Amino acid sequence: MKKALLLLCAAISIAAVSCKCNKNNSGDPKDEVITEAPSNLQTQEYIEGRIAEMYGFALAQDKYEDADVKFFTKDLLDLQEKVLKKQNESGNLYIDHDHWVMGQDCHNPSYEFVKAEDINAQTAKAYVKVKAFDDQENPTLVRLTLKFNGDDWMVDDIEEEYEGVFYSHRKMYDEALAE
Length: 179
What we know:
- The protein has a single domain, classed as Roll (Nuclear Transport Factor 2, Chain: A).
- 40% of the residues lie in helices and 23% in strands.
- It has helices at 2-21, 44-60, 65-71, 74-90, 169-178, and strands at residues 110-117, 123-131, 140-149, 152-162, 165-168.
- A five-stranded antiparallel beta sheet has the order 1-2-3-4-5.
- The protein is globular.
């Protein structure tokens, strides 16, 4: 009886650990691996460095789509791809500017990290100010929803501030697909 109880406990423990990671093993590098951030990655300093990595890469590219593939969660990237497909098929404009700099036809775009908040083992918020042009007087405040995915923070939503209100790109994408 004790042996059966020990085997049952071991099986439950193995199942619990397996469920915690929730890994899709299809081999696709974009597959999400849901994990929890170690405490040393749940700091203002670490997230600021991660944002610097994201924006450093995005602003150095000729095409921002490369940064999307590298730094978006699979869910957000899939959602964006569906909206772009619908946009191409319908001719309706749903995505009209680059979300890394909140502009079109940029000239010397830049960003400034503001802060990170609401940091926990799975999600965080990061705020940056972005300029599409080097002579832009008022930068746009952007709130990034980050999700710890695999082994680092990934962007799961981008919200731009306009007249004191944040507008979620994820919500706009969902609404575009619902039309």
